[in-house]
Amino acid sequence: MHARVQYPQEIEPLVQFIEETDPAEILDRTLEKLRGGVDPQTMLTASALAVVRSSDLPPGHHGGSLHPLAGLHAIAKLTGRLDGEDRFLPILQHVALSNKHIHDPATSPFSLLQFAPLDPGGAEVSRTADLAADGAGEATTAEGVAAAKAAFLKACDRGESNKADHIFLWLWDHVPAIEAFDLLLSVALPKNALDDHYFILPGYAWRALETLGTEHMRVLMRPAVRYVARFPMQKKIPEIDAVIEEHGLLGRVLRERTGDDETAKIGETGDAIGSVDAYAEIPVLLAKALVAGLSLEGAGEALSIGAARLFLRSLTGNPMDVHLHTSVNLRRYLIGLKGLSMRNRVLALLTWHTGPEVRSTQNRMMPAPQPDPQAVAALPPRSQEELLEAITHSILTQPPTDWSKVTNLGAMRAVPEVRGTVNLAQQYVNCRYDPQVLMDRLAQLVCHDNFTEMHAFKHHQAVIEEFNATREPWRWMHLVCGCQAAAISFGKDMSLYEDLLELLHAA
Domain ranges in the chain? Predict the structure, then answer.
């Protein structure tokens, strides 16, 4: 019989600790280990390895390893920006979430099994080493790789996720990692139209490798492969393919890198995207801009500006509806990723609006521009410190949610008090007060959340990265978006954070 996946001895005991500790004790005992000298990044890696090995992926996208993996990049970055024992808070949130899914009957008991990679080419491909001496090995290797890729796509077409997992283990060993990842995205990107997470899981799992290292790449990517390969299959998005074909995007040489000469066009395109009422207009706007000479990087920046404007117009009160921001952040990263195919880079750019959690927001929008300039202008003048405290107070005092009246989380509308937070944040950026001070305050506030399964952490990181990657004067919108998201998510469930405060203060 197959045995479950085993990790190197230097981390295996820590993984077992997260798997086996009772949920009622996981916070206390994890904090003990962190205070005892366990490196926070090592604990985070162990948490990811534990939830991958010992929790199943559910039929939907809540539970199992999906959100713990998607949140790794954000948690790792946030931990590095916090001071003292505050840096433990994101790690403790992640460990608690992993431990929860490992003990949840909806996703456990489960064991990720260790098995040999499947060689789709059979014995002929296995003769590669013998044939290399006479020059035949290279051709046979190319044939074997082509056979493996075709077999993987066929497995995805049939929803054979277990077989796809076998084949992909072979691919990791026989092609550059970026080539294998590109193949995975070729399936994931069209399926974004079915569920945003088909794209988000592999994309953010790949990003986590930049921070945590590639030592455990094969196992950390296995849930993404299995998730992407399952039914239903979505081979194409006809309306996007039609835009690509009409504008000849794959038949022309596209400028890749942006420059100062694109500033006006980027702003114009971003503002146009942020003003649409029908999201189907967005890929056409981007395609026309590319044909007119805008670079891929510039188009990604324009999409980021537009996404921020649309998020600020959104009336959503669902704290998990942050994919407008997190998804565009991931797409900008992929557009600049060396080794990714041009088709996948173009698809990443043009499919942003297709995910259900992004698409649904177009039905809950306020007219542009937002925030309301008159409401912001009516605010009394405040110093940076006064305004920072006013923003914080407005977030901390958001009305509690009456869950007895919530029948559909996705249909929740933001309470009017959220606009108060947004207006204060807009005043802060209008004054061009220190952005880092506001980021640091938001970093502290985001640690309260254990309702959104890492969504709040991912959005916070996306806001910071988009602020840093977007030019003046549009970059400041991302900070306002961060405050809006914090106001929407604050207080939904902070029970874990409250328990942590007791532990920290009991020391």
Answer: 12-102, 139-229, 238-363, 373-400+414-504
